Amino acid sequence: GSSDWLCATVFVDLSAAYDTVNHRLLLKKILENTNDLAFTDLIRALLKDRRFYVVLYNKQSRWQRQRNGLPQGSVLAPLLYTIYTNDQPMDQNTERFIYAEDLCVTSQESTFEAVEANRTSALDELHFYYERNHLHTNPAKTKACSVLLLIDNKYDYENGPVCGNQHKKWVLYSFYCKVPLGAVLMDLSFHSIWSLL
C-alpha cells in the first residue's frame, strides 16, 4: 500500500583498508584538516623510510620501501584512517554510518525504483571517491540488504483482527545480495524478489 516503506542498505567492505592508504594524500588531508604543519611533519616522520621484506618458502625478498599503508597495532592507525576517509561523499538521499573502515549506506523510500536509484547514485559517488583515494572494495564482502515494511491495518497481535485504521502490524521481509561497487543496482531486479514474497 501507499504507507509501505522499503529500507535499502549497503555494507561496504574495503580490501586491506589500512594497507592501501596513500601517504602523500594522507599528509595533504591532515594539513588541510588541522592547518598544523608541525603535526603534519610529525606524521610524515612516522611514515617515512618504513621498509619491509617478504619471506616465502624460507626465502627472503630484498628490502622494499613502503609507500602506502599505516603502521598498525595502536590507536593511531584508526585515527589516521578516519582523517584519510573523512571526506567520503554523502548522497543527499542517503544516510551513512562509519566506524573506522566500516561503512553502511542506507536509504528509505516508498518504492523500489526510488530506493534503487538512491543506492546506485551513492555507490557511484563512492566508486569514484575510492578510485581517487587508492582504496579498493571487496566485492565478495560488500553486501546489500533491503527490508520491506508492510503496514497491515486489519490485524492486531493482542486483540485480533479489527476494522478500520485502529491497529497496525509491521511485517518485515529482508533479502541480501552481493554488490560490487560500480555495478548498477537497478540490475538487481528487486521486482523479481518481490514476486516471491
TrEMBL record:
Gene source species: Sparus aurata (Gilthead sea bream)
PROSITE patterns: RT_POL
InterPro entries noted in UniProt: DNA/RNA_pol_sf, RdDP_mobile_element, RT_dom
Protein name in the entry: Reverse transcriptase domain-containing protein
Pfam family for this entry, one: RVT_1
Reverse transcriptase domain residues: 1-175
